[in-house]
């Protein structure tokens, strides 16, 4: 049977809870967790009002979640309320944590996020991964993950799972990198290379960046096209609050859309791809600059200082990006386009030409373009938060993992 094109619930464990009494109980536990998480703190009565269950039913669910260490009581609610004050509930800052990791072309990063969404531990290693074997990269990433987990455990947190963002195509099995051109990886089973002590999910970095924008962004709509860039350029499409993945899970490869079919060759095997005009290294070449560790900082600094060659390179990159986005906007009709990753930092010089191309070429009304406040942190945060969301979506899973 063909896999569904639209993943309606990107945040959960991916398994549907059965329509049984046990399944209903698990769904109600999730409703309680989401209600408290969304508000920061709520009484049992307020939770019951929001999710439409009796106070007695909610109290039973809350007691269970407190026993599992997922909720905690903060004490009596603030004075001034009519009637007997209830005890305010909050998501626990201890217990399960989401471990997010990112394999970049020139860095590795790992972080731990608690159920409140707070980053509690982080580790980063700068350095190129392009010419390294997957086994060596995974071994080093595993070391960083263990360091972060150890730091989190000192704060009474334990890993509920590990989610890894990669710059490439990921199979629907959630562990195999089918192709990552900028790493020169092919059919690499990340699950077999990383520590097996935690539940593992691997996904494209643009997908995790889009989910971070959906969950953490301010007033982000539920229909948008998210674009991010480093050396490569990735995109993710969010429709009705879920990722549009495509039949094989490869949707969103904006960087390999040809904007000039007779242009330079691309590592993907094509020619004139968007990455050859709007990726970080392409912009550096056009600006006549040598690559260094902080490529974005170099470009932004020179552009800020009025370097006309850098500004021209960024204008050209913005125009190429606008041409590529036009096809996606005309095809998908998103509510907005969100620029993340390096594009967010370079947006003052990219946006004018990008928006000019998008406005002039789009069949319908102009699609607004927003700049992500998460920037390059999006994929790492999205990965960690995907694990957190899996716990909120099915709190009973902690009893199976602990």
TrEMBL record:
SUPFAM superfamilies: Actin-like ATPase domain, Winged helix' DNA-binding domain. CDD domains: ASKHA_ATPase_ROK_BsXylR-like. GO terms for molecular function: DNA-binding transcription factor activity. Residues 1-23 are annotated as: Disordered. Residues 30-81 form the HTH marR-type domain. Belongs to the ROK (NagC/XylR) family. This is ROK family protein.
């Amino acid at each position: 049977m063909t896999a569904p094109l639209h993943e309606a619930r990107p945040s959960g464990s991916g398994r549907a809870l059965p329509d049984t009494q046990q399944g209903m109980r698990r769904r109600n536990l999730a409703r309680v967790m989401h209600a408290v998480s969304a508000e920061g703190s709520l009484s049992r009565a307020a939770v019951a009002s929001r999710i439409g269950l009796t106070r007695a039913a909610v109290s039973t669910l809350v007691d269970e979640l407190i026993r599992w260490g997922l909720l905690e009581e903060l004490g009596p609610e603030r004075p001034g309320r009519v009637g007997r004050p209830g005890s305010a509930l909050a998501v626990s800052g201890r217990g399960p944590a989401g471990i997010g990791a990112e394999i970049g072309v020139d860095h590795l990063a790992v972080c731990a996020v608690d159920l409140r969404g707070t980053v509690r531990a982080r580790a980063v290693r700068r350095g190129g991964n392009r010419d390294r074997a997957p086994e060596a990269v995974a071994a080093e990433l595993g070391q960083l993950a263990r360091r972060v987990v150890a730091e989190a455990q000192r704060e009474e947190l334990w890993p509920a799972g590990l989610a890894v963002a990669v710059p490439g195509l990921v199979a629907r099995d959630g562990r195999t990198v089918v192709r990552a051109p900028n790493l020169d990886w092919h059919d690499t089973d990340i699950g077999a290379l990383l520590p097996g002590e935690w539940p593992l999910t691997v996904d494209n970095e643009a997908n995790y960046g889009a989910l971070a924008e959906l969950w953490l962004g301010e007033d982000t709509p539920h229909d948008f096209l998210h674009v991010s860039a480093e050396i490569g350029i990735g995109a993710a499409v969010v429709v009705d609050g879920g990722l549009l993945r495509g039949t094989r899970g490869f949707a969103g490869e904006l960087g390999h859309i040809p904007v000039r079919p007779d242009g330079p060759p691309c590592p993907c095997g094509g020619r004139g791809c968007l990455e050859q005009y709007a990726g970080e290294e392409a912009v550096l070449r056009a600006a006549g600059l040598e690559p260094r560790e902080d490529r974005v900082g170099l470009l932004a600094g020179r552009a800020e200082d009025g370097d006309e060659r850098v500004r021209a390179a960024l204008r050209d990159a913005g125009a190429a990006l606008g041409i590529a986005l036009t096809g996606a906007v005309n095809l998908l009709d998103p509510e907005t386009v969100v620029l993340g990753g390096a594009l967010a930092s370079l947006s003052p010089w990219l946006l004018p030409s990008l928006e000019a191309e998008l406005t002039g070429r789009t069949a319908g009304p102009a699609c607004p373009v927003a700049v992500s406040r998460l920037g390059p942190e999006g994929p790492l945060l999205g990965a960690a938060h995907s694990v957190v969301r899996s716990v909120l979506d099915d709190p009973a899973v902690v009893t199976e993992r602990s």
